[in-house]
TrEMBL record:
<keyword id="KW-0472">Membrane</keyword>
<feature type="transmembrane region" description="Helical">
    <location>
        <begin position="118"/>
        <end position="136"/>
    </location>
</feature>
<feature type="domain" description="EamA">
    <location>
        <begin position="151"/>
        <end position="286"/>
    </location>
</feature>
<feature type="transmembrane region" description="Helical">
    <location>
        <begin position="64"/>
        <end position="85"/>
    </location>
</feature>
<feature type="domain" description="EamA">
    <location>
        <begin position="2"/>
        <end position="136"/>
    </location>
</feature>
<feature type="transmembrane region" description="Helical">
    <location>
        <begin position="241"/>
        <end position="263"/>
    </location>
</feature>
<dbReference type="InterPro" id="IPR037185">
    <property type="entry name" value="EmrE-like"/>
</dbReference>
<dbReference type="Pfam" id="PF00892">
    <property type="entry name" value="EamA"/>
</dbReference>
<feature type="transmembrane region" description="Helical">
    <location>
        <begin position="30"/>
        <end position="52"/>
    </location>
</feature>
<feature type="transmembrane region" description="Helical">
    <location>
        <begin position="184"/>
        <end position="202"/>
    </location>
</feature>
<dbReference type="GO" id="GO:0016020">
    <property type="term" value="C:membrane"/>
</dbReference>
<dbReference type="InterPro" id="IPR000620">
    <property type="entry name" value="EamA_dom"/>
</dbReference>
<protein>
    <recommendedName>
        <fullName>EamA domain-containing protein</fullName>
    </recommendedName>
</protein>
<comment type="similarity">
    <text>Belongs to the EamA transporter family.</text>
</comment>
<feature type="transmembrane region" description="Helical">
    <location>
        <begin position="152"/>
        <end position="172"/>
    </location>
</feature>
<keyword id="KW-1133">Transmembrane helix</keyword>
<keyword id="KW-0812">Transmembrane</keyword>
Length: 287
C-alpha cells in the first residue's frame, strides 16, 4: 500500500512545482510560500479531524514532537529556498537539483536509520548524480524564464539539503503517530517559520498587490502540496525511507512534462539524456 501512496505523492509534488511557478511569477516568493502554507495547514488539519486522529494527540511522546518540529523547520527552509530558486530559474533546471536530495537522504538513512544501501542503490546514486549534472547544463537555446545568471543554483542546492534532512527527521518523528496528525503538526511549524520571515522582511503589505491569477495558482499549489504531503508521510510511515524517497522524486517527470506544455520550457538534448538517467537511477534504487 505504501507504494501507491508514494506514487500519489510524486504526482501531486510534480504538479506543485508548476502551479507554484505560475503563482509566484508576479509575487514575492517568501510571501507566496507563507500564503500557500495556510492552505496546506487547513487541508492537513481537515483530514486529521475527518479520520479522527486528533484524539491521539496526547499520546505523542516528547521525542516524536521534537523531531516533528525539527522536520517542519527543515521543510520550511527547503520551501523558502525552493520557491526562491523557482522564481529565479527554470523549473526544468531547479527541479532536478531539488530531487537530487535523494542522494543525501540515502546517505543519512544509512548513518542514522541504519538502512543499509545495496549495490543497486549505489548504481542509482551514480546515475542520479550524472543525470542531474546534465539537466542543469546551459540550454542550447535560452528559455523564456532564463535570467542569465546562476543565483537560482545556490537556493536550489540549499533546498535539496533541507529536503533530505526533512525526510530523515520526519521518518523518526512519525514513528508511533498517525501520519496525518504528524503532517498537520509539522505544517504548523512551517507556517510559523514562513510568516516570521515575511514579517521580518516587511513583505506583508505586498499582499494587496497580488493579482487574481496569482492567488488562484498559489492556492492550487498549496492544495497540491497538502495532497502530496499526506501521501508522502503515509508512505514514509509504512515503507523504508530509502525506497519511499526515490519514488517520490519521480515527480520530476510530471514537472518536466508540464513545464514543457504550460511554461514552454524546452529541454536540451543533454537535458533529455539527463532526465533518462535520473529516471533510470531512481528505478535502480528500488531494486
Amino acid at each position: 500500500m505504501w507504494l501507491l501512496f508514494a506514487l500519489g505523492s510524486a504526482l501531486f509534488a510534480g504538479l506543485t512545482s508548476i502551479l507554484a511557478k505560475i503563482g509566484i511569477k508576479n509575487t514575492d516568493s517568501n510571501l507566496a510560500t507563507a500564503l500557500r502554507t495556510i492552505i496546506v495547514l487547513l487541508f492537513s488539519w481537515l483530514v486529521v479531524f475527518v479520520v479522527g486522529s486528533q484524539r491521539t494527540i496526547d499520546l505523542i511522546s516528547t521525542r516524536s514532537l521534537v523531531f516533528l518540529i525539527l522536520s517542519g523547520a527543515a521543510t520550511g527552509a527547503s520551501w523558502l529556498c525552493y520557491f526562491k530558486a523557482l522564481q529565479l530559474g527554470d523549473v526544468n533546471k531547479v527541479a532536478p537539483i531539488d530531487k537530487s536530495s535523494t542522494i543525501l537522504t540515502i546517505l543519512l538513512a544509512f548513518l542514522f536509520l541504519r538502512e543499509t544501501p545495496t549495490l543497486w542503490m549505489g548504481i542509482g546514486v551514480v546515475l542520479l548524480a550524472a543525470g542531474t549534472y546534465l539537466m542543469i547544463q546551459r540550454q542550447e537555446t535560452k528559455t523564456p524564464n532564463d535570467k542569465g545568471n546562476k543565483s537560482w543554483l545556490f537556493y536550489a542546492v540549499l533546498s535539496a539539503v533541507f529536503a533530505a534532512l526533512t525526510s530523515i527527521l520526519g521518518k523518526v518523528g512519525i514513528q508511533g503517530i498517525e501520519s496525518n496528525l504528524g503532517t498537520a503538526i509539522r505544517t504548523i511549524v512551517v507556517l510559523l517559520m514562513a510568516w516570521i520571515i515575511v514579517l521580518f522582511q516587511k513583505k506583508l503589505p505586498l499582499v494587496k498587490t497580488i493579482d487574481k491569477k496569482s492567488w488562484i495558482f498559489i492556492a492550487l499549489s498549496g492544495l497540491a502540496t497538502g495532497l502530496s504531503w499526506l501521501c508522502y508521510y503515509r508512505a514514509l510511515q509504512e515503507g523504508r525511507a530509502s525506497l519511499v524517497v526515490p519514488i517520490d522524486k519521480l515527480s520530476i517527470v510530471v514537472t518536466i512534462v508540464f513545464s514543457r506544455i504550460v511554461l514552454k520550457e524546452r529541454l536540451s538534448k543533454k537535458g533529455m539524456v539527463g532526465l533518462l538517467l535520473v529516471v533510470t537511477g531512481t528505478m535502480a534504487l528500488l531494486f
